[in-house]
Amino acid sequence: xxxxxxxGRARDGPCSVSSVIHNPPMCPSIDDFAxxxxxxxxxxxxxPMCPSIDDFAxxxxxxxxxxxxxPMCPSIDDFAxxxxxxxxxxxxxPMCPSIDDFAxxxxxxxxxxxxxPMCPSIDDLAxxxxxxxxxxxxxPMCPSIDAAxxxxxxxxxxxxxxxxxxxxxxxxxxxxxxIAYSRGSLVVIDQxxxxxxxxxxxxxxxxxxxxxxxxxxxxxxxxxxxxAALSLAIELNDSGRGFKTGAxxxxxxxxxxxxxxxxxxxxxxxxxxxxxxxxxxxxxxxSDAASAIEAIVSECEKMMEEDVKACRAIxxxxxxxLLAACDAKDGRKISVMTCCNTGSLATAGYGTALGxxxxxxxxxxxxxxxxxxxxxxxxxxxxxxxxxxxEKIPGTLICDNMAAALMARGKVDAIVVGADRVAANGDFAxxxxxxxxxxxxxxxxxxxxxxxxxxxxxxxTAKGEDIHIEERPAIEVTHSLGQRxxxxxxxxxxxxxxxxxxxxxxxxxxxxxxxxxxxxxxxPVGEFVAKVKGxxxxxxxxxxxxxxxxxxCETVLDYALSRGNVAAVLGGAETxxxxxxxxxxxxxxxxxxxxxxxxxxxxxxxKQGLPYVRCVxxxxxxxxxxxxYEAEAxxxxxxxxxxxxxxxxxxxxxxxxIVMRYLEPPHIILRGGIIEGKxxxxxxxxxxxxxxxxxxxxxxxxxxxxxxxxxxQAFGQNEDMCELTEQxxxxxxxxxxxxxxxxxxxxxxxxxxxxxxxxxxxxINALKEKFMTEGQALLHGDLHTGSLMCTESTTYxxxxxxxxxxxxxxxxxxxxxxxxxxxxxxxGWESCNGDDRSNQRExxxxxxxxxxxxxxxxxxxxxxxxxxxxDHGSLSPVAHYGAGVQxxxxxxxxxxxxxxxxxxxxxxxxxxxKMIRRIIGIAxxxxxxxxxxxxxxxxxxxxxxxxxxxxxxxxxxxATPDSVIEMVRSxxxxxxxxxxxxxx
Length: 984
Ligand code: MRU
Prior knowledge:
Elements: H1 8-12, H2 16-22, H3 37-45, H4 60-67, H5 83-89, H6 106-113, H7 129-137, H8 145-150, H9 165-168, E1 179-182, E2 185-189, E3 200-202, H10 206-214, H11 221-237, H12 246-260, H13 268-283, H14 289-325, E4 334-338, H15 353-362, E5 366-372, H16 379-390, E6 395-398, H17 403-408, E7 414-417, E8 421-423, E9 428-431, H18 434-443, E10 448-451, E11 457-458, H19 475-478, E12 479-480, E13 483-484, E14 497-500, E15 507-510, E16 513-515, H20 525-543, H21 555-562, H22 564-569, E17 580-583, E18 590-596, E19 603-609, E20 612-613, E21 617-621, H23 625-640, E22 648-652, E23 657-661, E24 668-669, H24 670-676, H25 683-697, H26 700-715, H27 719-731, H28 748-755, H29 758-773, E25 777-779, E26 788-790, E27 795-797, E28 804-806, H30 808-833, H31 838-866, H32 878-881, H33 888-920, H34 926-929, H35 934-954, H36 961-970, H37 974-980
Parallel strand pairs: 4-5, 4-7, 5-6, 7-10, 8-11, 10-15
Antiparallel strand pairs: 1-2, 2-3, 8-9, 9-14, 12-13, 15-16, 17-18, 18-19, 19-23, 20-21, 22-23, 24-26, 25-28, 26-27
Helix pairs in contact: 2-4, 3-4, 3-6, 10-11, 11-12, 11-13, 11-14, 12-13, 12-14, 13-14, 14-15, 25-31, 27-29, 30-31, 30-33, 30-35, 30-37, 33-35
């Protein structure tokens, strides 16, 4: 509706911003309005304030009249779709206690006259959003809708189905409201007009909402999300749309949410709200249209209710957190600094950061709030200041560039701000200027918090630099309230937000409590959300039993579109039509899609875990919690070792989905490359580094005892997958089990031998106990040559679904076992294919040794870099090994040697167990299994089984990688045997 043309006054006058808005090309000249009754009335109704036509530029009612007239509305019938016109037909309200209350309000006076002959009496104004807003905009003379209601006038509920925003949460709504909603009517306060005018905008469609959000008439992360959702509720409520089925409703809703999501990109609340609506629409796909509409509309209405409650809880948690951080005892009051507007106007009521300030005030603990004006749109001076004055909260306005000076004078105790998106590591985007505040706060030693509902937390975005920062038009900087304030011709950079690194803040205040840094200095946002949302999902499932749905090649594209950062990787939402998806999962459990975006190099992987085993179906349920374990382990491993772990873009607990980086060709699964006879010269260096870094950084050596305990508890046990490991590695191969199979009859004798070897079984049992009880570090849990993707120069670990806190040697052993299994398979391939694999054999043995050597070196390096540490949880405490302790340095070195020796022995034991199970147990390796000649294969497997047994039993005597290699080389030379065989 707002196509820009220049009107006469706009070209040179200061009102060019609004004139662009209210002079669309549909209205080429004032003459075109001649037939419009509303325009005619607007002329008269603005008379005291608008002595000449030029003065209408600032008149909101005139502006709206321009929009809803034009040659395209030549007769009264053509106004049928115009919400403002419709409301103008009935234009005042019983909520107005008496006409005298408005005596001093020019807009009200004009509203009385602009109700037109079609508004026969004042009672007929009940439904008019413009009138309702005029009631509040006339303050202080007009006591406000609340005051009117208190005086016992009729409640603002129209009709049996009406849900007024106040009625939804009567005790928790504050009197300032950015959004007024009742079924069929949505009105927002124009936040660009505040505080000079309290002008309402009726939202009759998603397009109206889109425009309001884009133009920042509605702003603030939660308010944007709710306006968008409620605008869809309004459209769906319009019974004229003729939906026949739930599927029609879903299709329509999806189109609208896709559009709404494009209005503003940074605040994740919008995408989150739209995803929530889409979820409900999907669930209701098979119901009738009326039920689907009812479900979606109710979901949107619920968001308002939830937001007010969330803000109240944020206020309570935040007030406590700030007082504690300032050590404000004995009722001492504190002074708090904030920026932008995070109050009633940015939410459904009460506010987030401003909610914390309100809560301090309510508790009598607020000395002063310093609000920054917040250029360029002055949300601080216009909106926050307005809220503070309105609620008589002690407030002082400062310009943005005064913050540091005020801190230096000791006037500020703490800082609290809002957030538009909080990434997995606690970095957060908020109004531009927040980052400077954080840097200044750090310098002055002041605690700074961000306050946001859980809907603002986005664990799928790993870190701050992945957040899409909206850039806005230059005019917002060059002009202030319509006046040019910058020299013509100057270039402008106008980012709407900046990113504050997590390291600079003390906590993230949410309605479920405050997220604080763990011992390693990281905010566990992902874990927090998974916990909180986990319980939400359970609650939602109760009312929507069919809540989860499996993606397919079509819906996976919409899903990608709904995730801003994924859409960006694919080339941007606007390229959606070019995207394609293919299911490429070849496992038994999960679905894996590859989405190709705007060009072949723009791809992502989407992995979805069903609540049951894929190849069996619902009759074999499987917990989807495994996807959370996989996502969290991947995210943490990527954080520790980004060179060897792909990035996760999204983890969606509700749908058990992980969206992650596509490892582009020529990456292939390492096992496949080895079978083909390839060598990977940097494999050992990379895997050694991956193991050293992920194991060291997640261990007590790095995070201390308390940190490890907290991390283990937060991560959980991955019970199902651990139980599976205990079964298939440490139990079944050593007895009778249906799952066992081997190359029979060739290996029957050696399998019998193994299964009756009491010493071996005791050793396996000791390894099992270690696996069950030693939570040293966060492991991959299944690190084999099938879970590594490589090129000659790169290596990435994937598939962390078995991740758990276990003994370090389990991961190292798993990899070493696979290298040895590959080694033993070489002679088989050589024999069957007739090629010479001696080069590859040497490379594999060399990799066995180098993997351990790199691991040991890098692990020690990290330990030494950290040095001795003086805290009780430390494993290298100053008291034992510090500089002043006699022989301390030597003792530390001896301690480190013992530690690593134990890891080496564990690794060999686990490697042996893994080798045995891959030949006798349920799951074999293709390296051996695919050797086409059974006799050849059996001989390779026999040699590998012997090696495995020797590793388990001899782990503590095989002191170095060289001693293992020597043992391997000295086993009966099967390579020689096979080379000779054809001649025999
Ligand atoms: O551009 P805006 O005004 O929408 O920016 C708003 C902010 O940055 C707020 O701090 C944030 O959205 C939180 S509002 C509760």
